[in-house]
Amino acid sequence: MLKNIDASQLKVGMYIHNLSCDWMTHPFVRNRLLLKTEEEIRKIVDAGIHDVVIDCSRGLDVDHAPTVEETRIRTEAEIVGLAEKPVLPARTTMAEELKRATLIRHQAAGLVRTVMQDARLGKAIEIDRVGSVVEDITASILRNPGALLGLLRIKTKDDYTFLHSVSVCTLLVAFCRARGLDATTTYQAGLGGLVHDTGKALVPDEILNKPGRLTEEEFAIIRKHPQDGYDILKQSQGIGPIPLDITLHHHERYDGSGYPGRQAGEGISQLAQMAAIVDVYDAITADRCYHKGMAAADALRKLYEWSKFHFNPQFVQEFMRCVGIYPVGTMVLLESGRLGVVVEAHETNLLAPKVNVFFHTKRDSYIKPETVDLSRGLGFGGGDKIVRHESPEKWQVDPARFMALAA
């Protein structure tokens, strides 16, 4: 039986099934291990890990600890309450924005590649060029945030480093918009998102793309990238305090367990706190050479659980409303047995988005694609509801093909 326990309850002889944190946080070669020494427990606590999952069939038990399923049910009930808050509507349709968003995605990734190359060569970063791309991203988010955000869910292991920065920029701009921040602050935050990982240009490729867990020495090199990025950008003409702050502090954590300054609580600026949330969200949803990305809906639930310690809970909840309980691009199974891809959040009910359906699981065949508005009743284009999100790999389909339907 799998149970959730607090790290303070750990004892030698327990079998850890999962260290409930993003994989770059913990100091172990693997997520699953039998605790044999007090030193291993101390490492877990020192890494700022608060919740762990233990397997009681393979090690010591903890009486009265909730099972993983009980925790999941409680979390789902709390998330349902978040789904009823209003969100901002899109100004254009998904189909109208996808072509523009595709071009912006390509141009932005190319720019980040250039920025990293310049940083590696010791050249100054051309902030004006970066700024024009941020303006394009912002304009796309204002028209229809789902188009670019949906496209950026698709990354390969080779282009991850560049597209991750584009994703963080885009998510931060959308987050700022959802929180009602002014245009200047939103622009500066987007700029910070696009350049936040500049310091990784100084990390050797064999460490950055290592297909396995990092050693403590390698992890120490990775942890230098916020300071390195800050130092590089400080030499760039026209860089403002917000991008510098985001670059230096996007790995800080609310409980003080982050780096490089172990800042905590409101000692971390609001925009750096927001950047930390979107940075982790994008990282854990992407496939890497050493990690299989999790579904966006699962990642949001993880962030919600981690917000008890690592993130500002209010900001995490606002971020979840920003991207949707089922983010655009998520493949979902409907009660009718149809598969679809989420294309637009409903303004007041995030559990009832618009979905482009394209496959019938009961018939095991493709169907004529159509848009279903789950907020509407039977006979009015709705009359269905989401059962759960699904893995595209399981059904061997590419949901991105159905983000926009032919007119």
From TrEMBL:
Entry-linked Pfam families: DUF3391, HD_5
Domain of life: Bacteria
Protein name as annotated: HD-GYP domain-containing protein
Coiled coil: none
InterPro entries xrefs: DUF3391 (IPR021812), HD/PDEase_dom (IPR003607), HD_GYP_dom (IPR037522)
Species this protein is from: Massilia agrisoli
Domain HD-GYP: 139-335
Matches recorded under PANTHER family: CYCLIC DI-GMP PHOSPHODIESTERASE PA4108 (PTHR43155:SF2), CYCLIC DI-GMP PHOSPHODIESTERASE PA4108-RELATED (PTHR43155)
